[in-house]
Amino acid sequence: MIDFIRLFWRDKTRFEHFVCQEKNFKELDTLFGLHTGQIKYPYRTSFNTMDVRITDKYGYVYNSIHKAYNEIHSDDAHNYNDFGYSAICKMLLHINSKVADVENANLTQFEFGFNIKTPIEAEQIISNNLLMHKMSGPNHTRLFNGRGKLKQFDHHNYVLKIYDKGKQYNLRENILRFEVRFLKAREFQKFDIYKLEDLKDKYKLRQLFKYLLKRYDELIIIDQIDESLIEPLDLTEFIRYNNSHYWENTIKENSATTKMRHLIKYNELQNKYSLLRTKTLLKQLIIEKYSQLINF
User: How far is the C-alpha of 241 from the C-alpha of 50, rounded, in Å?
Assistant: First the structure.
C-alpha cells in the first residue's frame, strides 16, 4: 500500500545532531572546501536504502519503505511483492529507531497504491485500454526504468501512475501497478495525515483507499472492440470521444452543459457496447488486494 515517503524537519537541530554522530551513521558525505577547509552542506547518508539529507536549513528522510523493508528481510530491495499493514507498521518503527525526532517531522509526500496480478498482460492494458484521466491524456508515456510500459497523469497536488511492474523486474507474472503519489501535503492532510505515525491508523488508510478508488473511477479504461460491430453513427462519435484532444482542445471552451452532454453520450456508448469489463475487473482486483493487505 504505502511505498515512497518523504519526511521533513523544519527544526533540524536534534535530527542533525543525531545523524552527525559516528555511532549512529558511520558514513556521512559532505561538501569540503579544498582551500578553506570548511565543511559545507548538504550532508548525506542512508540506512536500508532510505536516503538522509540535511541542508543548511532543513532535514529530510525519503525513499521507498517497501524496498527498504525487503532489503532488511531478504537482502533484495524490490517492491513487486505484497506489502501489508503489519509490514508497514514494522518499517515505520524501524525508521523511528534509525533517526531521532521523528515525531516532529512532517510527512510531505508519499505514494499509496497496489500491485495487482492480472489475467492479461499489464502492458496490453496500459497500451490498448487505458486512455485518459479526467478526460485528459497521459502527461508521460514511456518505459518505466527502461522496462514495462508506464502512463502517468500529472495534477497539481498529485500524480497517477499506472505501469507494468512485472516487466520492470523481468517477472513471468502479469503485475499491474496502480498508485497515486501525493506531491502536496494539503492533498492528504484532509484525511488528518500529518506525521509518519498517522500511516498506522487503519481508518486513515481506509480514507486513502476510498480516495484512490475515486481517482480510479475517473480513468477512462475501455475494452477493445471490432469496429464493424459498432453502428456507423456511433462509431464516428466513439472515435471522436476516445481522442483526448477532443476533450482537451476541441470543446475546451464550450459550456459545462455541452461538455456534460457529450460525456453522458460517451458513457452511454461504453455501456451500450459492453466496453467496461476490463475496468470493472481491475477495480475488483484492487478492492480484493486492499482487503487482503489491510489485514496482512
Answer: 44
Contact between 171 and 115 (Cβ < 8 Å): no
* CA distance between the termini of the chain: 11
* pLDDT beyond 90 at 142: no
Mark whether 190 and 213 lie in a shared domain. yes
Residue 17 has pLDDT above 90, yes or no: yes
Residues 50 and 104 in one domain: yes
| Helix/strand number for the chain, H first, E second | 11, 12
Instruction: Render pLDDT for 193-249 as a digit per residue (tens, 0 to 9).
Output: 999 999 999 999 999 999 999 999 999 999 999 999 999 999 999 999 999 999 999
**Residues 288, 168: Cα–Cα separation, whole Å:** 23
Say whether both 270 and 285 belong to one domain.
no
Contact between residue 62 and residue 5 where contact means Cβ atoms under 8 Å apart: yes
Per-residue 3-state assignment (H helix, E strand, C coil) for 4-53: EEEEEECCCHHHHHHHCCCCCCCCCEEEECCCCCCEEEEEEEEECCEEEE
